[in-house]
Amino acid sequence: MPVFAFFRQPPYAGVQILDEGIMYVLPLVGYAGVLFGFGFLTLAIASGLYYLSELVEEHTVLAKKLLARLVYAIIGIQILLVVVDRFPVLLSLLSIGSHAVYAGNLRHFPVVKLTDPVFVLSCGESVSRI
């Protein structure tokens, strides 16, 4: 017998391998993992949003400035996309108008007046896009 003949045999020669029947436990563990992962992802997003709301509540002036600059930056990007990349003009005008309404909502930030016409208009825009 050659020296390396031992290594040419199957690794479990003589040992009976379990039948490759249907697995019952592993798919259940996988489904449980998906459910736990989804639950923890939801909790992580909720805690992150809570932390951001606390930051906005503590630093209202900075948040208002940041939100206003972001809205104007998005409007500028939309205009650039229309001019340079030839985005659809009508949809871009709708987006620019929506962001102009959102900028109008920042007048009384952080107080939200539910009867303010600008707020009602922004709610109507959000509902009309569905």
Strand content range: under 5%
Oligomer: single chain
Alpha-beta content class: mainly alpha
Low-confidence stretches: none
Distance between the termini: 77 Å
Average pLDDT works out at 85
How would you describe the shape? extended
Radius of gyration: 30 Å
Residues in helices, as a percent range:
55-70%
- Report the count of strand segments: 0
Count, helices: 4
Largest sheet: none
**Helix and strand element order:** HHHH
Key structural traits:
68% helix; single chain; mainly alpha; 0% strand; 130 residues; 4 helices
Describe this structure in words.
By secondary structure, the chain is mainly α. It contains 4 helices and no strands. It has helices at 25-58, 60-84, 89-105, 117-128. Helix 2 packs antiparallel against helix 3 (89-105) and helix 3 (89-105) packs antiparallel against helix 4 (117-128). It starts with 24 loop residues before the first helix and ends with a helix. The mean pLDDT is 85.
